Amino acid sequence: MSFQRCAFEERLRQIGAERYHDKHPFHELLHSGGCTPDQVRAWVINRFYYQSRIPMKDAAFMSRVEDPALRRAWRSRIEDHDGSDGNEGGIARWLRLADAVGLDRDYVASAEGVLPATRFAVDAYVRFVRDTSLLEAVAASLTELFAPKIHASRIEGLLAHYAFADDSSLSYFRNRLSEAPKDVAFGLAWVLDHADTAEKQDAAAAALTFKTDVLWAQLDALHAAYVAPAHIPPGAWQPGTHLSGGAA
């Protein structure tokens, strides 16, 4: 690997080291057991909106790809979330988490109670992938470089501190421990191969930075709405509502 290629990869990894959302106070609260049941529910509701839009984002990306090899490599991402024969899929696994925390899964799936800032941030990401260069779209996905660490911390923290946490409710995160490295290995190699000028490297780095902002903005919205001093926007989920039968 050339020095220039190594230096560019290190630049990308440094963006994650400085800006990935594992450093957000909401995640620190969640993983340490400091969230109330309703704060966990708010996180589940809002994060579902992001999860549900990932295959839509990937479909928008694939609709612009002319190279069959790239389409073949990318389409497994859609199946990972939507499911396929023998694979439940990430969206269904996330709804199992919604069941476990006592939410009405139909309400979660409707996205009716999603915070405005969550919706705007996630929709901006889908538009970004749809409208920018293929290089920028792939580079934005490289937050997966940093995801296995946060998934492992989340599994450990939730199991230690929350009664709802078990193998079934946390299956989304366990599956991503094997799915994410596969995706990112391909995506990173593709970006390193195609960002072959300083201008392209700058664009790829900016795309990854944008994606970290998308993730951070979602947690800012959660923290502002549901952690003291809580201020829930009109139309967003209100604690104590839309629970499944028997939820406390």
UniProtKB/TrEMBL annotation:
Top EC category: oxidoreductase
Q: Which InterPro entries does the UniProt entry name for this protein?
A: Haem_Oase-like_multi-hlx, PqqC, PqqC-like, Thiaminase-2/PQQC
Catalytic activity, per the record? 6-(2-amino-2-carboxyethyl)-7,8-dioxo-1,2,3,4,7,8-hexahydroquinoline-2,4-dicarboxylate + 3 O2 = pyrroloquinoline quinone + 2 H2O2 + 2 H2O + H(+)
Q: What is its EC number?
A: 1.3.3.11
The pathway entry for this protein reads as: Cofactor biosynthesis; pyrroloquinoline quinone biosynthesis
What does the record give under GO molecular function?
Answer: pyrroloquinoline-quinone synthase activity
The name on file for this protein is Pyrroloquinoline-quinone synthase
Source organism (scientific name): Roseovarius aquimarinus
Q: What is the lineage of its organism?
A: Bacteria, Pseudomonadati, Pseudomonadota, Alphaproteobacteria, Rhodobacterales
- What gene makes this protein? pqqC
